[in-house]
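for the recovery benchmark. tokens below, seq after
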């Protein structure tokens, strides 16, 4: 699988209050060679982002305390992480939800339940390209 080779070593953060979603994403990403960071909500994620500086962030929308829109907006307001791709995860697939994700600076929108392929394609589309 050509894509998997490109994903080796990429640091991906998955922010979701569902343990099942976090674990599923982690399994798919680790199999593809990614380093995975997990966070259960926006506050947890913001503390870890500063310490670990992920290459790509998946962010659930519906979370307690700090929802995905607020979390994404805070990430994008920080000059150090503004360029980090944030991919919104949601079980809601409406135009309004997608538009709201764009307004807070998200780079892509992935609907749950996601497949292994859709998750890895999203990572591959934002993966830093190796220097030839």
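predicted aa per position
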């Amino acid at each position: 699988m050509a894509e998997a080779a490109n994903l080796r070593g990429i640091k991906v953060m998955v922010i979701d209050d569902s343990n099942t979603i976090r674990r599923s994403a982690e399994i798919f990403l680790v199999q593809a060679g990614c380093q995975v960071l997990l966070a259960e909500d926006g506050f947890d994620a913001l503390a870890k982002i500063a310490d670990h500086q992920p290459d790509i962030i998946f962010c659930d929308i519906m979370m307690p305390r700090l929802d995905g829109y607020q979390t994404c907006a805070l990430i994008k307001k920080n000059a150090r992480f503004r360029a980090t791709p944030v991919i919104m995860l949601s079980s809601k697939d409406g135009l309004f939800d997608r538009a709201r994700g764009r307004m807070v600076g998200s780079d892509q929108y992935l609907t749950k339940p996601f497949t292994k392929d859709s998750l890895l394609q999203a990572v591959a589309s934002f993966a830093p390209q190796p220097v030839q």
